[in-house]
Design goal:
Strand content: under 5%
Number of strands: 0
Largest sheet: none
Helix content: over 70%
Structural class: mainly alpha
Number of helices: 3
Oligomer: single chain
Amino acid sequence: MRWAENYHLFILGVLAFASAFLGRAARRQRSTGWLRLHITGMGLSYILLLTAFYVDNGKSLPLWKELPPIAYWLLPAAVGLPLIIRALFRHPLVRP
């Protein structure tokens, strides 16, 4: 393992796990506002996992290798966060 070079992947993995755990716990407990927490936690987990994947493998992928390295960090969030926000406002069980 190359811990010195890949510590950022470990941090992304821990954050993704924590987000997924929060989303799952919200689903299991079903407290007030559980659906918002579930959507946010699971969505953020997916964004963080995609970010880790592209940061690690982006330089080897056909389309992604043409992009600057900062894009590997920002594009998954730029695509995923609007989708999560849209789900939070348009899901029929979340709307008031």
